[in-house]
Amino acid sequence: MKRIGILTSGGDAPGMNAAVRAVTKTAIHNGLGVVGIRYGFAGLVAGDFVTLTAEKVDHMISLGGTFLYSARFPEFAQEEVQKKGVEQLKKHDIDTVIVIGGDGSYHGALALTRLGINSIGLPGTIDNDIPCTDYTIGLDTACNTALEAIDKIRDTASSHHRVFIVNVMGRGCGDIAMRVGLASGADAIVVPERPYDIKEIAQTLTRGFAEGKDHGIIVLAEGVMDADEFRTELLKYGDFDARANILGHMQRGGSPTVLDRINATKMGNYAVKLLLDGKGGLAVGMENGQLETHDILDLFDDTHRSDETLLDINDEMTK
Ligand SMILES: Nc1ncnc2c1ncn2[C@@H]1O[C@H](COP(=O)(O)OP(=O)(O)O)[C@@H](O)[C@H]1O
Ligand SMILES: O=P(O)(O)OC[C@H]1O[C@](O)(COP(=O)(O)O)[C@@H](O)[C@@H]1O
Ligand SMILES: [Mg+2]
Where is ADP annotated to bind (predicted)? Predict the structure, then answer.
């Protein structure tokens, strides 16, 4: 093993830079070279490579986004395109790759391993939608950013006795909504993982206002439905003023939290050790704070399991 290539792919996530830094510093400590591949799999195929040094990654631990840039490059699903990527790696003496991204990016990591380049996947996505891990890099920062925004929305909601429907990211996964819903004291958390009764939510809020409540917050996962559509439906059954608010891409930015920095650093350090042991085709995850690995192939047959106890607790306090 000579040189590790590292790339970030799919949606960016706070902590990706911390993971790249950890990989670079660990690799250098072990006498290996590290090459940053810019723009995800698109840059891999184009040969957009940059040598990483300890100095280059030194201050990266606190920066949001990804300094290697990211891309969505669906063409990488085609084997002939993957082979072009492998040619580029061979040309640059890179024999192993670490891919930081979500479930889509793991397909790319597995394809590289099958073509002879041992690759390890690190879970870099705010969505927390990857099977066999209860944490993904960026989740904690995204939740804190959304929480801060909801706390502010609550101020204006109270002043005007309004209900706010706050749409948070997560694609088909409700984990961000479950976390920030509970942490913000939402009146309802609406996620794809669990059926909901919009009439019941509206009636509970109407009753709350009648009893002296001065605002309402509904945290809506983006995978359920559009926030405006939800508002229209809600107002059919409720007697109150309501506004819809989409938090959007702000949830992907910002300096990573302590948790995201520590976990990204642990995962980056671990990924290099796996490659040094000759491993490939593995995804690094975390369960109950402990690092774990799973065959990427097994992930594709599995689904992510959310901590639905958060919903149970919220339901018990709000219904
Ligand atoms: N089936 C696949 N085979 C190879 N590469 C893939 C495959 N699916 C996705 N990718 C690569 O991973 C990238 C990121 O995937 P995407 O689903 O957009 O985000 P994420 O990895 O964050 O879930 C894609 O743009 C593509 O380059
Ligand atoms: O940045 P885009 O292309 O608008 O995509 C938005 C999507 O990306 C995410 O922010 C992150 O998703 P991935 O990590 O799978 O790329 C989702 O929460 C959201 O649905
Ligand atoms: Mg994804």
Answer: 21-25, 154, 185-187, 213-215
Active-site residue flag, 226: no
Residue nearest atom 18 of ligand 1, based on CA coordinates: 10
- Please indicate, yes or no, whether the overall pTM of this predicted structure exceeds 0.95: yes
pLDDT (0 to 100) of residue 319: 76
Annotated binding site for substrate: 125-127, 162, 169-171, 222, 243, 249-252
Cβ(8)–Cβ(64) under 8 Å?
no
Cβ contact 260:252 at 8 Å: no
Confidence check on the interface: ipTM exceeds 0.90, yes or no: yes
Cα–Cα dist 201/194, whole Å: 14
What average pLDDT does this structure show over 42-67? 97
- Which residues' Cβ are closer than 6 Å to ligand 1? 9-11, 40-41, 72-74, 76-77, 101-105, 107-108, 111, 125
Q: Give the closest residue to 130 by CA, choosing from 313, 314, 292, 310.
A: 292
Ligand 2 pocket, 170 CB below 6 A?
A: yes
Burial of 92 (0-12, 13-18, 19+ CB in 10 A): middle
Percent of the chain scored above 70 by pLDDT?
Answer: 100
- Closest by CA to 244, choosing from 259, 254, 231, 260, is 231
Closest of 134, 100, 108 to residue 267, by C-alpha:
100
Residue 150 clears pLDDT 90, i.e. is over it: yes
10 by DSSP, 3-state: which? coil
